[in-house]
Amino acid sequence: MPSKILPRPLSQKNLNKKYQILALESKGRLDFTNERGKANLELLQKYYSAFSNLYGALMLKEAWELFSFAEKEITDKKQILKKDFFAFSEVARYESYDYYVLEIDELYEDEKRGNAGTRFIVNKKLYRKGYGRFSDYYRLAEEQMKRTLCALEREEVLSWAEPGNLWRSSEGRALKRFIKSLTVHQNSDNIDTNGVKIAGKRLTEFVFWHKDEIINYDYTKRVWVKAELKEYYDVTELEKTLRAIEWRLNSSVLYADVKRQIQYLFDDLDEVGVRLTKSQLKTLLKLYTNFSNNSRWWPLCGWKPVELYMQYKGNEGPTISFGQGLQKAFADGSIHKEELVEEMKKLGFQVIG
Known about the structure:
Structural class: mainly alpha
Number of helices: 17
Largest sheet: 3 strands, antiparallel
Strand content: under 5%
Mean pLDDT: 89
Low-confidence stretches: none
Strand order of the largest sheet: 1-3-2
Order of helices and strands: HHEHHHEHEHHHHHHHHHEHHE
Helix content: 40-55%
């Protein structure tokens, strides 16, 4: 595993020096002191962020091809050159963004550092501290090798410049609105982090630590790691649920298919104390399936599953089995298994177990 120190944000004074060098090297095309140069810099900042949010990770030479496709007029008129696009990465490496710009040898220790085109934009969600810090990236990179990149038009690419674009789609808004409406069962004995019972409360109204979070926190001995974990876990259950959905959608391990995504969501809600009615269950299944199928996934190189559907037409549909939360509902009679099986078949799933 790589052990090199990653680039850290510079002070504004040192950043200004880098921007001055960039302005000189680009002959004013990337220069905050003139109107055109400032607009170009702001545009590149948006594209780097958009590529991070849309693909998770991307080599700069591929990013340039996508940029050229989306900004054909600008590149044809040579308002921004290929060398400008690459040169900007030297400054972006030392800015405080939601992504890293990494040299190839900072990701792969056996690789030799090449030109700027071999650098990578890597979303910071793919990084974890300690051993195996880029293991999530490696799995994603392996999965992405199976497909070509999805090239989008300018307007849609730039819509990804700000985080959270998954939830701004009509499908994302509908799913989020439904989850926001869920409440903890009235008979639940669960308590929040303040020791107050959460029965009857919506997911926006309390902070609840799941068993795996408690185990992680108790197992960790380092004080600074505990502080980071506490900050990460101390968010409302709605934010935690949406965060988990987004991660599972973009993960290349365990959850990279709809059946597992849905099963983990059901298990999370059950642990909190949410007991879905038959009607709610049907609604959630439809909303989640629609959301998943119409969202752009990192492992799919930015493609939506519906856009790739024709490649797999004629194959058997995905399979699904019922987790512990649903098995409890079957046992107490609150949900009829036979009816649910029929609903899942209508959605294209093969039910096992």
